[in-house]
Specification:
This protein is an alpha/beta fold. About 40% of the residues lie in helices and about 10% in strands. The chain binds pyridoxal-5'-phosphate (PLP). This is Pyridoxal phosphate-dependent decarboxylase family protein.
Length: about 475
């Protein structure tokens, strides 16, 4: 695609808008995942300008660009202030929740070495970032069940799973799938009693729960003030409303943060000191996060939290009143998941998409039924009645349509298929033979895809998803 001669900026922007014609809308609150919109253009504008201003600053060498160090100290300080850390609480600004979790896991592995393969005790509702970090860092995940009615981690199960090789125990505040807060105080106390570190994944809730509490919600203790909590992650690119690429991980102790760092002088080039997984990286996201925090301020976050709380309560109540639908658990943050009794939720999701709304499908797992997930944000309130109407109408349509027609025997074939034995082209043909067009433009009907995946065990789902990714990037 490289042109012979350089193209103008107008020309490039025109092509970008063409490329984006099938994208989900990032404004307006009709996309209830991936996007966190304040509904305040001036805040977005401040973030974009600051991002642009810091774009070319490279945080690879903190001595070369002291601006980035000063900004990071302020941002980390703001998060520590909200999450029960005192002045000087050690933290790291990272590119996202996954990287924050990766660094907390590395710190746990390196801070207290064990004889065998280091183990991490992780409730089944915890984010896959823990599995990813374990995969990258050579750790073993010990999954523990959650309560089937409340979806919260069970402290006794956590206690049972701790072995002499366990380096870290995880709790979520809240866990993403059902938006409930694990019993952090109990789990952290168990970890501390066994001499094990405890990470709280507050990626989605860290910059939300304290404001919700201030707005009148009841929020159980989950932050650094809870005895036994040794690290906590908080994504600013979620309820901090910052542009993507912004998260913070805090540690209870400077020695733990040092265990997250990496330094190398083992080559004849410049000395490497990295706080994060990335080495050369733009300070743009840091500038964007710094500006967003300052542009909203306490008043802004509290106002957004009030709207978020009102919208969440209205949504949960409204969904509960739609025949055939039920909210899973009692969400404490602003994440609402609902399942269908005589309504196929995957079909419901496709129906809503036809009406311009995106509701995120979640596959059944560990005894938890398939469901749809809504992330309620500050802009949701203005459209909450419209959203409920769309959900009710889509549920009606889904009930009338019935479940998606999955070709007979397909799940069995896929579960036993040796994917390594077929190439991408064959995989594409296989998908086409059951009516799934992987090469097509625009938004595919996903109900059949989701129903097929839902019928498979997790390892088969993973193999197919990996292949899917390889095909769409080919
Ligand atoms: C989003 C999220 C993560 C991972 O964050 P990324 O920023 O997508 O890497 C981890 N844990 C929870 C609970 C989350 O919601």
């Amino acid at each position: 695609m490289l042109p012979e001669n350089g193209r103008t900026s107008e020309d490039l922007l025109a092509e970008i808008s063409l490329l984006r014609r099938h994208d989900l809308q990032v404004r307006g609150g009709k996309v209830t995942a991936y996007i966190y919109d304040t509904g305040r253009p001036e805040v977005h504008d401040a973030a974009a300008r600051a991002y642009f201003e810091m774009l070319e600053v490279n945080t690879l060498d903190p001595t070369a660009f002291p601006s980035a160090v000063a900004m990071e100290r302020q941002v980390v300080g703001a998060v520590a202030g909200l999450l029960g850390g005192g002045p000087g609480t050690p933290g790291i600004f990272t590119s996202g929740g996954t990287e924050s979790i990766m660094l907390a896991m590395k710190a746990a592995r390196d801070a207290r070495p064990v004889a065998g393969r280091p183990r991490v005790v992780v409730p089944v509702t915890a984010h896959p970032a823990f599995h990813k970090a374990a995969h990258y860092l050579g750790l073993e995940v010990a999954p523990v069940p959650v309560d089937p009615a409340t979806f919260r981690a069970v402290p006794e199960a956590v206690a049972e799973a701790i072995t002499p090789d366990t380096v870290l125990v995880v709790a979520s505040a809240p866990s993403y799938p059902q938006g409930v807060v694990d019993p952090v105080a109990d789990i952290a106390a168990i970890a501390a009693g066994r001499g094990v570190l405890c990470h709280v994944d507050a990626c989605v809730g860290g910059w939300l729960l304290p404001w919700l509490a201030e707005a009148g919600a009841s929020v159980p203790p989950f932050d650094l003030t809870v005895p036994g909590v040794t690290s906590i992650s908080c994504d600013l690119h979620k309820f901090g409303y910052a542009p993507k690429g912004a998260s913070v991980v805090l540690f209870s102790d400077p020695a733990l943060r040092r265990a997250a760092y990496f330094a190398s002088a083992a080559w004849p080039g410049y000395t490497v000191i990295n706080a994060t997984v990335q080495s050369s990286k733009s300070a743009g996201p840091l500038g964007g996060a710094w500006a967003t925090l300052n542009a909203l301020g306490r008043e802004g976050y509290l106002a957004l939290a009030r709207d978020t709380l009102t919208a969440t309560r209205r949504l949960a109540e409204g969904i509960g009143a739609i025949p055939g639908l039920r909210v899973l658990g009692e969400p404490e943050a602003s994440l609402v998941a609902f399942a269908g009794d005589d309504v196929d939720v995957f079909v419901l999701s496709d129906e809503a998409r036809k009406l311009g709304w995106f509701l995120q499908p979640q596959l059944s797992y560990a005894g938890i039924p398939a469901n749809l997930h809504v992330t309620v944000t500050g802009v949701t309130l203005a459209g909450v009645e419209a959203m409920l109407e769309v959900i009710a109408a889509s549920a009606e349509a889904a009930r009338a349509a019935g479940p998606p027609r999955v070709p007979e025997g397909l799940a069995e074939i896929l579960a036993t298929l040796d994917l390594d034995a077929i190439d991408d082209a064959t995989f594409t043909e296989l998908a086409a033979s059951v009516g799934i067009d992987l090469g097509g433009e625009g938004q595919p009907e996903m109900a059949v895809v989701n129903a097929v995946l839902d019928a498979l065990p997790a390892p088969a789902r993973e193999a197919i998803l990996t292949r899917f990714l390889s095909v769409i990037y080919s």
